[in-house]
Amino acid sequence: MTPRRAACFDARARRTATSSSRAASTSESPVSIRLTILGKSPSWQDRDGACSGYLVEVAGMALLIDCGSGVFAKLRAHHDYSQVDAVIVTHLHADHTLDLVPFAYALTVGPVLRDDRPVLHAPPGARGVAAAVWSMGIRDPDRGCVRAA
User: Fold this and answer.
1) CATH among 3.30.930.10, 3.40.605.10, 3.60.15.10, 3.40.50.150 for 31-148
2) Mind listing the pLDDT tens digit for each residue in 63-89?
3) What helix, strand, coil percent values describe the chain, rounded to 5?
4) pTM above 0.85, yes or no
């Protein structure tokens, strides 16, 4: 083990030990987090796969991180898309955003399953990119998938 790796390992061990003793001394119950990897393919989706997409379920909330090509179908297989509370887009590459189009379309023209919409957290410039992409199939992107955070 190189000295740098040893330092990283030791720091991680110290954090874990500190966290464990802190958790043992409080009456807080542990938080359950469920992570579902919906897609991890590179710039194009693998056969039967999907590009970047991760579903995090914690404290009764569902958070979708990235929504690349193929992710919406995988999301529907694992979770009710209408119950996603927020979407985080890490960056504006197509392999992290393209399935926002079918997601928005489902929320726009599909059955009304809830009164509000998921909140989108995205890098600067996302509204312009979304308007350009969504204009291919959805005339009013503000009415569909997301509301600005």
Assistant:
1) 3.60.15.10
2) 999 999 999 999 999 999 999 999 999
3) 40, 15, 40
4) no
